[in-house]
Amino acid sequence: MGFRGFVGTIVVIAAAVAAYGAYAPDQAGKLWPAAGPYAQKLHDLATSGRGRAERAAAAETKGPPPALVSVTPVKREDFPLYLDSLGQVQAYNTVTVRTRVDGQVMKIAFAEGQMVKAGDLLAQIDPRPYQAALDQAKAKKAQDEANLANAKLDQQRYATLAKQSFATQQQLDTQNALVAQLTASLAADQAAIDAAQVQLDYTTIRAPLAGRTGFRLVDEGNIVNAAQQTGIVTIAQLEPIAVVFTEPEQEVTKINQLLSQGQAPEVIAKSSDGGETLAAGNLILTDNQVDTATGSIRLKAEFANKDHKLWPGLAVATRLTVGLVKNALVVPSAAVQHGPNGLYVYVVDNQNRAALRPVAVTHQNVDEAVIDKGVQESDRVVTAGAYVLQPGSPVAIDQTANTGS
Q1: Which of 15-24, 185-194, 268-277, 327-336 has the lowest mean pLDDT?
Q2: Which of 23, 61, 301, 369 has the most CB atoms less than 10 A away?
Q3: CATH topology for the 82-92+236-325 domain
């Protein structure tokens, strides 16, 4: 008998024993030792396959396992109405500090990037030429004061002599004119002193506002003049700071009504990806016209910015509060599903079975939605796992994700 004949014999024996085992499984087990080890292996394979089939049949009888879902209770709370947009941070005021007199820079009194207060010394221009001009103007005034005093004495003498007819009226009039002329000269001298004092004061350059200095544009020892365009330093006011952003033109009337009523709508500034809240401030201004090219209106919000999270030039996402829906039924936006018949949510009942509820949504943002009808307060709505549900499906609630449910 060849190898092929031996294998064929084993297969025939195994088939016969398996068939006999279907009717008398207890007796069939006694036949396997005679069939040899190969037949025993075939018996094991047949037995394991039958076990899998039996387990599958049992699973079909029990039904599919419950779907794992996350749920959140419906809440009744005030729902703010937002307008989301993008904006850019701007310094509240920006000043390029320039010299107003000519001269040599004797001292730079600030460090680059330093926070300065209004009135802090920034630079010192050589004051000596301007001090000399001031002293000269004061000396000229003193000279004219002496001449005026003498002219007034002569005026009194001419007035006395004219009464006694020892002086003519013309002489008295001439002396009166001289006194008036010297009086005017004194006024001019005082004006010259004031001008010289201003020029001298300009040699001391101080910060016009509180803010942060930028790069130093002039070094000590350089000659500067009032006509040059290059400044000494730029100061940006960071406290407070402004954010300029846009909103659709359809919202202009509503926003202006809020401002006209004395309200300052809240504006939230977030990172450009919307992930981090940077600051909270208030709307202070709408532009005086709509941009016809984009159909939008420019707005400005003010932020205290004590922590300096907002920086000039930074791109931010903005959220403008334009209203409030009081005592609304609120669910997470993730719970609202879109179907062929409209919007719906899945609600989990006390037996942990899913029920489909058509809903009417009146307001919705990225995080939450206001439901007008379809759910009640404290209903548990599915926020994750709804894609595998059918009406009546059993569910298992993920307790790690639903601490409040």
Answers
A1: 15-24
A2: 301
A3: Elongation Factor Tu (Ef-tu); domain 3 (2.40.30)
8 A C-beta contact, residue 245 and residue 318: yes
Separation between Cα atoms, residue 256 and residue 263, nearest integer Å: 10
HSE at residue 16, side-chain half, CA atoms within 13 A, is 10
How far the first Cα of the chain sits from its last, in Å, is: 74
Q: What is the CA radius of gyration of the chain?
A: 47
Average pLDDT, the chain: 86
Could you tell me which CATH class the domain 102-234 is placed in? mainly beta
Q: Is the peptide bond before 394 cis (omega within 30 degrees of 0)?
A: no
Q: How far apart are CA 281 and CA 283, in angstroms?
A: 7
Over residues 179-183, the mean pLDDT reads 94
Other CB atoms within 10 Å distance of the CB of residue 249: 14
Note whether 226 and 284 are within 8 A (CB): no
Enter the CATH code of domain 68-79+326-397: 2.40.420.20
Contact between 365 and 82 (Cβ < 8 Å)? yes
- Stretch 149-155: mean pLDDT, rounded? 91
